[in-house]
Structure formats: C-alpha cells, structure tokens
C-alpha cells in the first residue's frame, strides 16, 4: 500500500486541472438565471460581473489546486524518493542475511578441519603396522632363535662327540701338566700310544678327577696299558696300586695258570723300568671275596673293560662291594666298559654289557652315579660282530679278508661312568 501512494498522488495531480474545469462549469450552470422582468442591460451587467468573479475564483481554485498538485507532486517525488531509498535499503537488508549465509560458507572452514583430520596422522598410524616387519627381522637374529638360542643347549650334549672320534693327540687344554707329561712319556710302548685315539687316556683320567697326590687303585691292569701312565703320574706324591687276581684263590687249573701268567707279566714290566715303576704296589685279591686294601684308604678306583668278565663269572656284585669298601667317603669309582645296545644276559659271550646294568650294579653297592661321558664312544660300532668285541681291534679275531672293514670301525663303543661314594 505505501509503495502505491506516490503513483496515486501523481495521478491526482494530473486529474486536478480537468476536475477544476468541470467544477468551474458546474459553478456556471448553478448560478441563478436573471429575473424575467429585469431589463436586459442589468442582466447583461450582472452576467458580465459574474463571469469575472467566477474566473477569479476559478483561477484562485486552479492556483490552489496547482499548489496542491505541486505539493502532491513534491510529496509524490519525496515519497518516490523514499520508496526508492527504501527499495535501495532493502537489498542491503536482504544482503544482511548474506553474512548469515556467509557464516554458512564460513562453516566450510569447519569442513577444512575435517579435511585437516584426513591428513592427520590417523591414517598414518594405520600405516604404522609397517614396522611389524622389523620385529620379524628382529626375530631373524632369533633366537629363540638365542630358545633358541634355547635350542642350542640341546646341541651342547653333542659337543663331547668329537671325543668319540679317534684322535692322535690329546687336546692341549685338557688335564694337569703332570698328567699330560705322563701321557706323553717316552717310556710308553709305541703300540700302546697308537691306541690313544680310541682310549683317550688324558680325557678319561681328567674326567675321573685323577690327581698326582691321590691313592689310585686300578683293578686288573692286564698288560699295564694304563699302568704306563698312572705309575709315573703318582710316583712322587701319590700311590699307584695294581690290584691283580691272586692265582691261588682260583678253583680251576686253567684259571690259576691264566692269572699266574698275567701277574708275572705285569711284575716283569714293572721291574724292567724302575724309574717309572719302583714305587708301584701290587695287591693280590680273592675274586670271590675281594679286598683291595684297608677300608676307606683310596681316593679313586678304576676299572677298564672288566665288568663283562665279572658278570659271566658271577662275581660282579662282590667286586663292586669291594670297590665301595676300599674307597674313602667321597671317593670316586671310574668305570669304562664295552657298551651293548641294551641289557644282555649274564652269560652273554659278546663282551658287551648294558649301560643301565652297570649303573645298577654300582648303585646296588651304595654308589651314586655322578656323571656320564661319551669320551670313549664309537658310533661306528654296530655291536653285531661274529666274535663280539674281540672281532674288533686290538684283538682282531676275524678273517683276513675282513680286516679293512673292522679297522675302519676301530675299537668298541664304550661307556664312561663316574660314581661317588657318599660322605
């Protein structure tokens, strides 16, 4: 409604002159007609005067209308100007929401944080699993593998195996200097030295704990293979006792002759080299009631490849009991024996004995198994030879055609056991 007001005022100003003229015509018609009896001049004069007044009135009215029209036009213009101004202002007011809309655009920066979140390290932590390969690489030095390295401890028991292979010389860091000197003695029979690679005297005596100040009893030394080492080793500070079977205690002529010859051969050996054997003590014992010396007098008792003979003769139990009696409390029993694949009958003729059987004999006598060693093991020994252990070197009871075969095997596979007499 306010917007149409200027237009109406302009229309009114345009119609005003016409309306004024119509009003003037109406005024002329409405004036009273002259009276009938009046003279013409009078009417003429009146008529002349009336138009003059009417013209003035019309002119005045027209002027007034013109003024009013002018005012109306001015008002219309003012109103139009105001309307135009209002129209111009309204876009500004309409534009005002635009800032309100612009904040909506300003929220677009709010979206930028969203974009900022996208490049944020959040995805990169997802890439962070890439370091996982490194632990895999770290596992390669695994090892728990070092589980490993925990599995490696399982391999350690195999380390002694090199000792099972024939060696021409003992390791330089094994044994005491005096023991190494005894093993390397020039007085030893070259044939005996040649067997060091199978019998490992330095490693074996070190394992048994032999010391130069000890009293050591060797049971049935045979030809004196170990006597050549032990007698000189103990000569200055210790004592070496060679325990041999007393021939007079044997029930058969054959056994008496055999034991008589063995004892004499050993005595001759000792007498031939007083520089090494002049202090050796020979103890003859009854194999059925063995006594190897005063009770609790020895530090170490040694027996090499004899248990199979005692078992077949039914003497094994009393022999181990005799070892126990002669040893000091805390003393050591060292046993080396041909090792069978398992238990064998007491009357077995192969020369092999089950390792568990030897351990049982010692424990029954009161000993405690302290340690086992593979120093004298030989994995090439199949233990199924036609003449038992005597098929192999050094006895070599086999056909000449098979000599190379048995020489390649070498001497028998042997157990090496260390027992302790409780204190």
From TrEMBL:
Spans annotated as Disordered: 25-178, 377-402
Biased composition (Low complexity): 31-119, 136-157
Keyword Signal: yes
This protein's UniProt keywords: Signal
Signal peptide positions on this chain: 1-25
InterPro entries cross-referenced by the UniProt entry: SAM-dependent_MTases_sf
The protein, known as: Methyltransferase
Originating species: Lysobacter capsici AZ78
């Amino acid at each position: 409604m306010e917007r149409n007001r200027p237009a109406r005022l302009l229309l009114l100003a345009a119609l005003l002159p016409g309306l004024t003229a119509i009003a003037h015509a109406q005024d002329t018609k409405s004036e009273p007609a002259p009276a009938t009896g009046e003279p013409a001049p009078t009417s003429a004069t009146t008529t002349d005067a009336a138009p003059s007044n009417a013209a003035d009135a019309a002119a005045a009215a027209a002027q007034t209308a013109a003024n009013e029209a002018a005012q109306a036009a001015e008002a219309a213009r003012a109103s139009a100007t105001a309307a135009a101004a209002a129209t111009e202002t309204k876009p500004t007011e309409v534009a005002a929401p635009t800032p309100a809309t612009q904040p909506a655009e300003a929220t677009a920066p709010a979206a930028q944080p969203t974009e900022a979140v996208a490049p944020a390290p959040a995805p990169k932590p997802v890439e962070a699993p890439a370091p996982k390969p490194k632990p895999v690489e770290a596992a390669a030095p695994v090892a728990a593998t070092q589980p490993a390295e925990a599995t490696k401890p399982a391999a350690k028991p195999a380390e002694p195996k090199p000792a099972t292979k024939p060696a021409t010389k003992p390791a330089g860091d094994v044994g005491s200097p005096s023991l190494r000197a005894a093993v390397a003695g020039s007085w030893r029979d070259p044939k005996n030295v040649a067997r060091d690679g199978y019998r490992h005297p330095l490693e074996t005596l070190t394992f048994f704990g032999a010391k130069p100040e000890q009293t050591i009893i060797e049971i049935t030394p045979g030809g004196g293979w170990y006597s050549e080492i032990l007698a000189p080793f103990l000569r200055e500070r210790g004592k070496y006792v060679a325990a041999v079977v007393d021939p007079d205690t044997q029930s058969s002529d054959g056994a008496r002759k055999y034991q008589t010859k063995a004892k004499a051969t050993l005595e001759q050996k000792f007498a031939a080299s007083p520089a090494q054997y002049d202090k050796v003590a020979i103890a003859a014992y009854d194999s059925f009631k063995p006594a190897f010396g005063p009770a609790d007098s020895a530090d170490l008792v040694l027996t090499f490849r004899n248990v199979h003979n005692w078992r077949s003769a039914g003497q094994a139990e009393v022999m181990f009991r005799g070892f126990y009696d002669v040893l000091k409390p805390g003393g050591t029993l060292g046993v080396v024996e041909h090792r069978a694949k398992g238990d064998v009958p007491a009357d077995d003729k192969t020369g092999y004995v089950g390792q568990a059987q030897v351990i049982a004999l010692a424990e029954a006598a009161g000993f405690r198994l302290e340690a086992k060693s593979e120093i004298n093991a030989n994995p090439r020994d199949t233990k199924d030879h036609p003449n038992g252990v005597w098929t192999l070197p050094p006895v070599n009871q086999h056909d000449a055609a098979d000599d190379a075969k048995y020489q390649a095997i070498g001497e028998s596979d042997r157990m090496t056991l260390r027992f302790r007499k409780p204190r």
